[in-house]
Specification:
Length: about 325
């Protein structure tokens, strides 16, 4: 089976590729230099010549609150374009199976907790990442719409999963443009090596989030794809054709911060910048659909954070001069 993983260099794509390779798939990948997913003609040529059997659409422009607020046009344009180019050109080339990876930010900001799949489009989105969320909603609606129009006539089966906040090996550790876990790991590490007396954290620390280790997510993706069509349709419906992936447990950002400080070994104090936004007050996914076909997360948060910090230490060039770090540590 020739399986194209779009976005194989990102944390999610790396994890999906690892899992597919373990199970004997022929994993097809392209770097951005080799295939720009924003280029419709290039994507069309790729699918017409590579004879792909199935697609895992993990490519996306991603980032934390700061990045989403700074680059809203790029977030909506690039994510919409990637989703439409890959989905449509895969369909035109006769690809029967595709998995779109979304994000829990698709749900309303004040959704009832835990968040069930049917809560999609039942309220206003979180303003700080609305452009990204709209692009992800469009991606899953593409899958649903192609199934509804072409499933019976063309035999396609396009599915979607909505993972909660992901972390793990291969993440982006940029201080301003990364998600909360890698950003905190980087911040505390820099503070530790520079002996900074404190670290400043955005927001109040009261917001609650759920975190899923990326290899657990990858296993869930393949479990969803391996369901028979009858089983998948049993757990979904044509207008809500996605499945949540999460742990079913959440922590406050303050609790997460303490865990990461301990994993990194930083001994200074933590301060909170109350002038900065928290984002949605809580995001906890209902994962009962996934549980019905036997999938569940296996890596506890503390263990996952230890593995992630070990990966960070291998991936990031050590900073040897202490005076390089204080500004970043207090950013």
């Amino acid at each position: 089976m020739r399986t194209f993983v779009a976005g194989h260099r990102g944390m999610v794509g790396q994890a999906v590729s690892r899992r597919l390779s373990e199970l004997g798939h022929e994993v097809v990948t392209r770097t951005r230099a080799e295939l720009d997913l924003l280029d419709q003609a290039a994507v069309a040529r790729f699918f017409q010549t590579e004879h792909i059997d199935e697609v895992y659409l993990a490519a996306a422009k991603v980032g934390g609150i700061h990045a989403n607020m700074t680059y809203p046009a790029q977030f909506i344009y690039e994510n919409l374009t990637i989703a439409t180019n890959v989905t449509h050109q895969a369909f035109l080339a006769g690809v029967k199976r595709l998995l779109f990876l979304g994000s829990s930010c698709i749900y309303p900001r004040m959704a009832e907790q835990p968040i069930r799949e049917e809560y999609l489009l039942n309220g206003k989105l979180e303003p700080t990442n609305e452009p990204y969320a709209i692009a992800k909603i469009a991606g899953l609606k593409l899958c649903e719409s192609y199934n509804r129009q072409y499933g019976a006539t063309h035999g396609i089966d396009y599915r979607s999963v909505m993972p909660t906040n992901l972390y793990g090996p291969g993440d982006n550790y940029h201080l301003e443009n990364s998600h909360v876990v890698p950003a905190l790991i980087q911040r505390f590490h820099l503070a530790k090596i520079s002996n900074a007396p404190s670290v400043l954290i955005w927001g109040s620390g009261r917001a609650r989030r759920e975190f899923l280790y990326v290899d657990d997510m990858a296993a869930g993706c393949l479990d969803v794809m391996n369901l028979s069509r009858a089983e998948y349709e049993q757990h979904t419906d044509p207008m809500r054709g996605h499945i949540n992936l999460g742990t079913g447990e959440d922590v406050s950002i303050a609790e997460l911060t303490e865990l990461i400080r301990d994993v990194v070994g930083y001994t200074g104090s933590i301060r909170y910048d109350l002038a900065q936004p928290d984002g949605a007050p809580r995001k906890l996914l209902d994962v009962s659909r996934a549980a019905t076909f036997g999938w569940h997360a296996t890596v506890p948060l503390a263990e996952g954070l230890r593995r992630t910090y070990a990966d960070y230490q291998k991936a990031i060039r050590p900073i040897e001069e202490p005076d390089q770090a204080p500004t970043a540590a207090h950013a």
